[in-house]
Amino acid sequence: MIASPDRTPLPREFFHRPVLEVAPDLLGRLLVRDTPDGPIALRLTEVEAYDGQNDPGSHAYRGRTARNEVMFGAPGHVYVYFTYGMWFCMNLVCGPEGRASAVLLRAGEIVEGAELARTRRLSARNDKELAKGPARLATALDVDRSLNGTDACATGDTPLRILHGTPADPAQVRSGPRTGVSGDGAVHPWRYWVADDPTVSPYRAHVPRRRRS
């Protein structure tokens, strides 16, 4: 018999660590999104670490801006950004306040509220695809910029919270290059995933955009 996942909230101290420690430790944790129509819970199966001003792939590499302000704040908060003029993606801030780093939530398994996620992910061919990729994950959970800065470690009434869940077996954790990252940041093996999990997104190397002639 498989034990139910631990629904104890993760403490802020969990995130007050280097991002390369936090990222693999997030696999198997439970992310809960409370919507007006009911809760949606997701087991994290794939993440990527971004190490702020030490990392050319990070939004904070060149310092603080209005867009990345949350990354410089307290650990355990949600950083949401808009990409390609179409999609939202969500991250969890790590490390000490003032030193920007965050973990991008790339994929997961919807374990509660799948019927709600399906209404937002009509193109998904099956439930394994509901949150298979960072934009799909945010869409399935109804995440947009209104949730930027949300405290995922807060107790009580909060739209997003991160719970202990069932941590992934370290023997099943894999790492490799981050998806779509170019330049000096492309070589970092800072993408982490649960081996053989069907909800993990496929790896894609960065492809430069061609300008129209």
From TrEMBL:
SUPFAM superfamilies: FMT C-terminal domain-like (SSF50486). Keywords: DNA damage, DNA repair, Glycosidase, Hydrolase. InterPro entries: Formyl_transferase-like_C_sf, MPG, MPG_sf. GO terms for molecular function: hydrolase activity, acting on glycosyl bonds. CDD domains: AAG. Coiled coil: none annotated. Gene3D superfamilies: Methylpurine-DNA glycosylase (MPG) (3.10.300.10). Its EC number is 3.2.2.-. It is an enzyme of class 3 (hydrolase). It comes from the Bacteria. Belongs to the DNA glycosylase MPG family. NCBIfam families: 3mg, PRK00802.1-3. PANTHER family: DNA-3-METHYLADENINE GLYCOSYLASE. This is Putative 3-methyladenine DNA glycosylase.
